[in-house]
Design brief:
By secondary structure, the protein is of the alpha/beta class. The protein has 5 helices and 7 strands. The chain has helices at 49-59, 77-93, 107-118, 120-126, 159-165, and strands at 2-10, 17-23, 45-46, 64-71, 98-103, 131-134, 155-158. Strands 3-1-2-4-5-6-7 form a 7-stranded mixed sheet.
Length: 184
C-alpha cells in the first residue's frame, strides 16, 4: 500500500484535531474528486512500519482527538490489508481516541454485504472504526454546508451503534461513539 500524505493537526476531516492519512488507490473515480492524484495505487510513498511508528508517536500528543483515514480509498482491498496493522495498534494504544474513515463504498451494501464475506480485514476494520462516512462523492449533490462530508448522498455512520443495533445509526455531533469494549 502507498499513501499520498499525512496531514497533522487537521480540523476538516472529523471533529477536533486529527491526524489524517490519505491512502493511494481508488477505483471509484468520482467526478469532481478533490484528490484525483490519489486514484493511482502507485502514487506517493510506501506505507511501512516506520510510517505506523511515526503516526503512533504523533498520536501520543494530548491535542489529538483521533485519526481519519481517507484518500484515495481506504476500503480498497489492498488498502484494507495495509491499514489493518495501524488500526489495530492505534485502537489498542489509544482506546480513548476515535477513528474516522471515509469511503466511497456503502456500509450496508458493499462493506457488510460483500467485503465482509470475502475479506476478514473488513470485519476487523469495522470493529475498530468509530465513524464511517460512506458513499461516493456526487458532484451534482455537492453541498458545502454539510458537516464533514461533500455531497448530500453521503452518510455519517456511528459504526459501533450500528453494529450493536443491527441497523444504520447516523452519527450526531456532540454524541461520543467511544466505548473501547465495543471495539476489541
Amino acid at each position: 500500500m502507498n499513501y499520498s500524505n499525512i496531514k497533522t493537526y487537521d480540523i476538516a476531516n472529523g471533529p477536533g484535531i486529527r491526524l489524517s492519512l490519505f491512502v493511494s488507490g481508488c477505483t471509484h473515480h468520482c467526478k469532481g474528486c478533490f484528490n484525483q492524484m490519489t486514484w493511482d495505487f502507485d502514487y506517493g510513498q510506501p506505507f511501512t512500519e516506520e510510517t505506523i511508528d511515526y503516526i503512533m508517536k504523533q498520536m501520543a500528543q494530548d491535542c489529538y482527538q483521533g485519526i481519519t483515514l481517507l484518500g484515495g480509498e481506504p476500503m480498497e482491498p489492498v488498502n484494507q490489508k495495509g491499514l489493518l496493522p495501524l488500526v489495530k495498534r492505534f485502537k489498542e494504544t489509544y482506546p480513548e481516541k476515535d477513528l474516522w474513515c471515509y469511503t466511497g463504498y456503502l456500509y450496508d451494501e458493499d462493506l457488510l454485504g460483500h467485503f465482509c464475506k470475502v475479506m476478514p480485514e473488513t470485519e476487523e476494520l469495522l470493529k475498530r472504526i468509530d465513524v464511517l462516512v460512506d458513499g461516493e462523492f456526487i458532484l451534482a449533490k455537492k453541498d458545502i454546508t454539510l458537516l464533514f462530508k461533500g455531497s448530500s448522498n453521503q452518510r455519517t455512520i456511528d459504526v459501533p451503534r450500528s453494529r450493536k443495533e443491527g441497523k444504520i445509526v447516523l452519527w450526531k455531533p456532540g454524541i461520543t461513539t467511544m466505548n473501547p469494549k465495543t471495539h476489541l
